[in-house]
Amino acid sequence: MYGQGPLGFEAKTVGLLLLPGALLNGALSPKIGILFDKYGPRTMIIPGTVLLIVTMIIYSTISFSIPAWAFILVYMALMLAIATIMMPSQTGALNQLPPHLYPHGTAMSNTLQPMAGALGVSTHGPVQASWSKQG
Questions:
Q1: Where are the domains of the chain?
Q2: Which of 10, 54, 59, 85 has the fewest CB neighbours in a 10 Å radius?
Q3: Buried b (16+ CB within 10 A) or exposed e, 120-134
Q4: 38-52, 67-81, 95-109, 112-126: range with lowest mean pLDDT
């Protein structure tokens, strides 16, 4: 949205900017799974959360003059953080359920994830608008 809105890029250009991060996420997810099996979720989630915080701080300071390569690198770091947080946290949570409840846990997780995303987006807009009026 940032690329198409304020930066004025076409959808195709934004897609190409995001492609390296998406490929990195897809390539690393199986390797993160192996590390999860070897070390457990905590070893993956804590560094991933720290990386996520750092990338969010960087994103909060992005301006219109950011070069494309810098945007791509920050997005790749974000995708690395997401890969090290999402799969271990979901797998760790589902592992706590008895086996006969796995389908229900998966259904709940798959239902709550987009609902939480929609809630975040719908509350962010009014909050951002109120901050813009104050500043």
A1: 11-96
A2: 10
A3: eeeeeeeeeeeeeee
A4: 112-126
